[in-house]
Specification:
single chain, 421 residues, alpha+beta, five-stranded antiparallel sheet, 22% strand, binds glyoxylic acid, binds manganese (II) ion
Length: 421
């Protein structure tokens, strides 16, 4: 056991308090979930809550032009490059209270623990949260961290619109997070992100912690399907151009494509959005807006799977007499994390007698963007209920969160004492 330990109760209370913001009761399960879609009013409130906690911990807060927030703690050698700890506080519309928040509030808990112990690290520390990690509102995930690391231009990010036509720039301004700082980030010394696994693996293997080896590739499409809306009772089946049937065929193809194993055993494919217009019981759907989410740790396989679905869109368009257009809204490759930082995480877990294993991330994370700038790795915390996430049932226990934050503390201390610029 290391000499220092975070205060698990304080961390868990902080997660609960942030989880109150944007809380809603799920009408089917009766469970309380969280809805803080990026740059919504609730996200603004959540952001202000976290910024207030950062300031109360004595950190200097900066907001950049894409709304990323950086809270800096001085180092003994304050000109040295900082160790950055971060994640996100935006959520999907049906979230729990842990996704992203654990990394941000876990970072803040590390700072509080160091404050109490009277420890000033050699390097400065920066606790960060990034804008629209989820991509659930403006369609592109890891948006803020992608702008901070130069993958997406600020102007392109600002121009993105949600389904109501509202822009990222306008919404940043509305909630008071259109900051002044230029978004391109100076490379930190290292980046660490503590996050819930969001899957069943660690819990099933009775592990306390995951050392994340990398993030699998992600590819998103938004499809517009145009057919012809017509009377459901009078229009012969042979005369229909049914956008709903075309969407259904694409969705079934996704399932068959994965089951075929043609693109490896690890391919995942999901149609998460199906919006039919006009959406009436007695009208053949004339338009559909749907999404496709493809993921694989094998980039070549992901590329071939993408080509497969694109060809299938054309075949289904011809078969169903509809037009199908698609737009690629996200594409990130498999990103491996830095072996040296993985080694520090594994060593810290071992020193605390925590059972741990290497694990690849199925979800996207800001860490994959930061890894272009500096040595980066992630700590995964197991989840109950098969690790369910993006769901109000999402739950990691106090002990699980505390273990993750303790290892975050240990690795932060190790990296922050490293010599050099
Ligand atoms: C982000 O949570 C994603 O992987 O979709
Ligand atoms: Mn997340
Ligand atoms: Mn998420």
């Amino acid at each position: 056991m290391s000499a220092r330990a975070v205060n698990g109760e304080r961390l868990y209370a902080a997660l609960a308090a942030l989880g109150e913001i944007g809380a809603y009761t799920d009408e089917h399960s009766g469970l309380v979930g969280v809805n803080r879609l990026a740059l919504s009013t609730a996200d603004g409130e959540g952001r202000r809550h976290v910024v207030a906690a950062m300031r109360a911990a004595g950190l200097a807060v900066t907001v950049d032009q894409i709304g990323n927030v950086y809270a800096r703690r001085r180092g003994r050698d304050d000109g040295a490059r900082p160790v950055m700890l971060g994640s996100h506080v935006d959520s999907v519309a049906t979230a729990g209270r842990f996704d992203g928040c654990l990394g941000v509030l876990g970072g803040l808990e590390v700072v509080r623990t160091l404050d109490e112990a009277g420890v000033t690290t050699r390097r400065p520390l920066v606790i960060a949260f990034f804008t629209e990690e989820e991509g659930a509102r403006f369609g592109t995930d890891m948006l803020g961290s992608a702008v901070a690391t130069g993958r997406i231009a600020l102007a392109d990010a600002w121009a993105l619109r949600d389904r109501a036509g509202l822009t990222v720039q306008g919404e940043l301004e509305r909630i008071g997070f259109l900051g002044q700082a230029p978004p391109l980030l100076e490379p930190p010394h290292a980046y660490l992100e503590c996050h819930i696994e969001q899957g069943p693996t660690l819990r099933a293997a009775e592990q306390d912690l995951g050392v994340v080896t990398g993030v699998q590739g992600i590819c998103w499409h938004e499809l517009g399907i145009i057919g012809k809306s017509a009377h459901a009772g009078t229009t012969p089946m042979s005369l229909r151009a049914d956008a709903g049937v075309a969407a259904a065929r694409i969705n079934v193809h996704l399932r068959d494509m994965v089951a075929s194993g043609r693109y490896g055993a690890d391919l995942r494919a999901t149609m998460g959005v199906v919006a039919l217009h006009p959406g009436l019981v007695n009208v053949v759907p004339g338009r559909a807006t749907v999404s496709v989410d493809l993921r694989s740790p094998d980039d070549a396989a992901l590329e071939r799977a993408e080509a497969d679905v694109v060809q299938r869109y054309a075949e289904i368009a011809a078969l169903e007499h509809v037009q199908i257009t698609h737009r690629r809204t996200a594409r990130t490759p498999y990103v491996p994390f830095e072996p040296r930082v993985q080694g520090l995480i594994a060593a810290a877990a071992g020193a605390r007698s925590l059972r741990h294993q290497r694990i690849i991330s199925g979800a996207g994370h800001d860490a994959q963007e930061l890894s272009r700038l500096c040595p980066t790795a992630m700590i995964f915390v197991p989840g109950e209920h098969d690790g369910i996430s993006h769901n109000p049932r999402e739950l990691s226990t106090l002990a699980q969160c505390q273990n993750g934050a303790n290892v975050l503390l240990d690795v932060t201390l190790a990296l922050a004492e490293e010599p050099g610029a």
